[in-house]
Design goal:
2 helices; 42 residues; mainly alpha
Length: 42
């Protein structure tokens, strides 16, 4: 996120789904005030 990675790229690197990464790490990123990008109908 900070390095410009998408949720999909993080998920692929960890070998899990995008939804799993989002569920596990979203709160931590919000608390750190890291700006998140939204998907645009990919």
């Amino acid at each position: 996120m900070r390095a410009g990675w998408s949720w999909s790229q993080v998920a692929e690197a960890l070998g899990v789904t995008r939804q799993a990464v989002h569920k596990k790490h979203l709160r931590r990123l919000l608390m750190a005030q890291i700006e998140l990008r939204r998907r645009n109908n990919e």
